[in-house]
Write a structure and sequence with these properties.
Elements lengths: L15 H4 L14 E3 L2 E2 H9 L3 H23 L2 H18 L9 H20 L35 H9 L3 H12 L4 H8 L3 H29 L1
Antiparallel strand pairs: 1-2
Helix pairs in contact: 2-3, 3-4, 3-5, 4-5, 6-9, 7-9, 8-9
Length: 228
């Protein structure tokens, strides 16, 4: 399994906080989605814009689990994730009138939640990892590293439990880039815009996150083998 395809890994059996993935861009499904008897998502959105509390509650019930899953993956802390989920829906309540339907509502809400988490981490004083650190030099006769693309070296080497734990143990800066790109499916240009860094820096951080994950997974497998 490739880490760049982590979001598709064993999705039917994955733990709830690991299996949600970002919806496809531009997929306008809310027009037909029924979220309550006689109520489509599109109708609920329009009613919520007009201040209808029951419609907003219906939208909350539909999307709260996915928003919570995103928050938990990014911060790695249950209590913080719960608080950030509530904050994301408070922001939604304040900003839902600005939704114009240019993308799927779930995509728009997802981006809003990401911004809430990133703002929280900035205020918290996220430990910084140098974005400008140079990658380790490669031997001329060794395999070339295409930074920011699929990592085939990890294919078939991990199980979802160990991978989930390893992601949680990544340093915060690495974990955020990994989650945004390999789990949530954001492109490097989108991550660069959200994080305020260059596309090259986003790719570099992702590469280092994958390398650290590989080291942690190797250690986990070695420890498991030693106990057998």
């Amino acid at each position: 399994m490739s880490l760049s395809n982590y979001q598709r890994y064993n999705e039917a059996e994955a733990e709830p906080h690991l299996k949600t993935k970002r919806p496809e861009k531009g997929t306008l499904t809310q027009a037909k989605k029924m979220i309550a008897p006689g109520l489509t998502e599109a109708e609920a959105i329009e009613r919520a814009k007009a201040g209808d509390a029951e419609s907003f509650e219906a939208l909350y019930g539909l999307h709260k689990r996915r928003v919570y899953s995103l928050c938990l993956r990014m911060v790695g802390n249950v209590a913080e994730a719960e608080d950030l989920t509530q904050e994301a829906f408070l922001q939604l309540f304040r900003k839902i009138a600005t939704f114009r339907g240019e993308s799927a509502f779930s995509t728009w809400l997802h981006r809003l939640a990401v911004n809430v988490v990133l703002m929280h981490l900035r205020k918290k004083g996220l430990p910084e990892i140098s974005l400008d650190e140079m990658l380790e030099p490669q031997h001329e006769d060794g395999p070339k590293k295409d930074i920011g693309t699929r990592d085939n070296n990890l294919a078939g080497s991990v199980d979802r439990v160990n991978l989930g734990r390893a992601v949680e143990n990544l340093p915060p800066g690495y974990r955020i880039i990994f989650v945004l790109h390999d789990v949530e499916g954001y492109e490097h240009n989108e991550i660069a815009e959200m994080m305020g860094c260059s596309i090259g820096n986003s790719k570099s951080q992702l590469h280092k996150a994958r390398m650290k994950l590989r080291d942690m997974l190797k250690l986990s497998r070695a420890e498991k083998a030693s106990r057998q």
